[in-house]
Write a structure and sequence with these properties.
Shape: globular
Structural class: alpha+beta
Largest sheet: 5 strands, antiparallel
Order of helices and strands: HEHEEHEHHHEH
Helix content: 25-40%
Length: about 180
Amino acid sequence: MIEAANFAERIGLAFNRHWTVHYQMAGIAEHDGAAFVGRLLALVRKHVARSGGKLAALWARENGDGKGGHVHILLHLPSGMTLQNLTRRWIKAAGGDPVRRVSKVRSIGGMLTNVDVGGARYRTNADAVLAYLVKAASTETGMELSLPRHGEGGPIMGKRAGWTQNIGATARGKRD
């Protein structure tokens, strides 16, 4: 995940949104969580492509005490693109019930203008949100990478984490 995030930044697709979706609250069973995330990302990809932009995404599913199944998705969206009034529609189209508080989108680094500039505030926030997403790493890996949190994330059925192909291992191998 860390390599994919670093690669995304190197190729100009730095993450600028953090989208959390509580899929269990939306009526999606844990064993259907990964497929639901895939459907959401397909809808985002289609929206970005219509505007001529490129999407990069990285995601991690969790199942915390009292929170139920949810996913954290880091997105690179083209400058000026908003998700306002779209996420609830996408959740419904992906098979979920877009109830109140099922979804929250935040800008990484404060205001979106900071993302475009890529200042110190952005760097600090981008590093913090990525560290948060990798908290499900094993204790051994967490200690090896000096992660502030590790061994957390709760039980997951199916795929826990993933990323778009344009920042995956194959793309990184072709570029490096």
